Amino acid sequence: MTAATSHDSTAISTAAATTRFDQGRADAFADRLIGVLNGGAMALMTSVGHRTGLFDRMAALPPSTSGEIAQAAGLNERYVREWLGAMVTGGFVELDPDNGRYTLPEEHAASLTRSSPLGNVAVYAQYIPLLGSVEDRIVECFHKGGGVPYEAFTRFHEVMAEDSGQTVLGALTDRILPLAPGIVERLEAGIDVLDIGCGSGRALNLLARTFPNSRFTGYDLSVDAIGRGRAESIQHGTGNIRFAQADLTHLDEAARYDLITAFDAIHDQKEPGTVLSAIARALRPDGTFLMQDIHASCHHHNNIDHPIGPLLYTVSCMHCMTVSLAQDGAGFGAMWGRETAIAMLRERGFTDVTVHQLPHDLQNDYYVCRHGP
Question: What's the short name of a Pfam family annotated to this entry (predicted)?
Answer without folding.
Answer: WHD_Rv2258c
